[in-house]
Model the fold of this input.
Amino acid sequence: MLRLPRFKYLRPRSAREAAGMAAEKGARAMFVAGGTDLYPKLKRRQFEVDTLIGLDFLGHDIRNGSTECVIDAGVTLSAASRDSHLKGGFGGYAEAAGLVSSPPLRNAGTIGGNLCVDTRCNYYDMTYEWRKAAGFCMKKDGDICLVAPSSPRCWAVSSSDTAPMAIALGGVVTLVGLDGERELPVSALYRDDGIEYMAKRPDEVVTSLRLRAEPGLRSAYVKLRRRGSIDFPIAGAAVAARMEGDTIAACRIVLSAVASYPLDAEAACTFLKGRRLDRETVQEAAELAAKPAKPLDNADLSHFWRKRMVRVVVEQALERLSDQPGGFDS
Amino acid sequence: MKEEILRDVERAVLTLNVNGEPAQLLVPVHKTLLEVLREDMQLTGTKHGCELGECGTCTVLIDGKPHLSCLVLPIQVEGRAITTVEGMASGSDLDPLQTAFAEIGAAQCGYCTPGILLSARSLLEENPRPSRGEIKEALAGNLCRCTGYTKIVEAIELAAGRMA
Ligand SMILES: Cc1cc2nc3c(=O)[nH]c(=O)nc-3n(C[C@H](O)[C@H](O)[C@H](O)COP(=O)(O)OP(=O)(O)OC[C@H]3O[C@@H](n4cnc5c(N)ncnc54)[C@H](O)[C@@H]3O)c2cc1C
Ligand code: SF4
Ligand code: FES
Ligand code: FES
Done:
């Protein structure tokens, strides 16, 4: 059997207390919310910790105002995917939450955990025995990268479905740490590094995600994976656009699972600004969006095919925008 | 004092509500709910498969919703209602889903069956007359290597019809 390692479980009553515990314990402790990412990784000995700090105190509410929606970090992916306000105002976010893994996993996995989910790699997300036999890599226990042996860095893949969507929607997280509370755009939460993939401090707890409602806002998320359920994304496109009449006033396209962080497709957005979403525009934008994506051979299926499919998922996501109420002819 | 102990523990005395009965147990906190059910409570109806959240055979209901017991710590679900396959029948009366599975032959090796029965039970409680698509979506976290799913879906439809 694959068992969890022995650990202590701490139960802070607030984010402040949790941050204090994390700072005191250092690298030997980790936060846990739903545990759906952390527990499999602990079973495979991808982390070595002796203490878990339970985030059971996190809120479970989705608060809708006229100008914004605040989602507590403890909200489950199931609850977020079914919430009628999120589905109405931030459809792409609800979709992304509903496409994570499988229904029972989404009943436990939280939206905060999904923003902080570990980067993935075929050589890393394996049991200790497998990794020992194949040779360890620099993300855990070793010193080289097995995918790109001459590379000084790790290229493990950002595999969150909701993070790209939260970035496309201009989301902002609230972080509570030892030094108090601060807000950070989700786009600033990540670093281009497979190992140190989060830009927040380790003692900081994500307590909520804020999405701002804007007139004419539309969003969509399209995910590629081997099976229609359970699997992590191997490519994905999160698209949000603010429409003025039938013209795109502003838009953001963020790609999943093609880099160590959610990848902004800026050139495509610059191109789309001020244009109508007709078929030709969609195709040209999708070509531009796919250019910066450089998937490596460290996730499911062939990376050449994944690269080709990035254009397709962006195209599908943009088409979905034009299908939404008030959409345009293509 | 009790509060202090509860906030920093390696072992814990937990009261779990399993199939409507409270059970008090002293368990190491790193034991999963799956392990505690099978090894400490002898409730071996809940199966272990991948133990990594990928197969769904360890599914139990927590407050009526399917959860993967291989990824749940008992300390995180104290006080919540846990239902395992052993809790589906009332006395000698099987749940209509269990009867339908037996009649239609929706189990072959049977390893996935407890998890699928519980996912289906949760679905029917929320949605007594699900469409085929809704049944498939509800089972999208439960793998079956034997049946090809057709008879499983048919058995759920049969049970739903009888319960309506
Ligand atoms: C079989 C399988 C399939 C999966 N498929 C997908 C998928 O398709 N898409 C996807 O995006 N994910 C997938 N996941 C990963 C995971 O289940 C989800 O990302 C989930 O949302 C994680 O949330 P959690 O609450 O369970 O996080 P946890 O496992 O509790 O935590 C994950 C990480 O985030 C940290 N953390 C958690 N909450 C906070 C917080 N509030 N503040 C600061 N740090 C925090 C933890 O320390 C840990 O490092 C899959 C997992 C499995 C096992
Ligand atoms: S990208 Fe390289 S260093 Fe990073 S996890 Fe994979 S093999 Fe290891
Ligand atoms: S044993 Fe829990 S999901 Fe496979
Ligand atoms: S009956 Fe054998 S796995 Fe489903």
Remarks:
- The interface with chain A takes residues 6-10, 12, 28-32, 35, 48, 51-54, 56, 59, 62, 65-68, 70-73, 75-76, 119, 137-138, 140-143 of chain B (CB under 8 Å).
- Residues B 48-51, 53-58, 68, 70 surround FE2/S2 (inorganic) cluster (ligand 3) (CB under 6 Å).
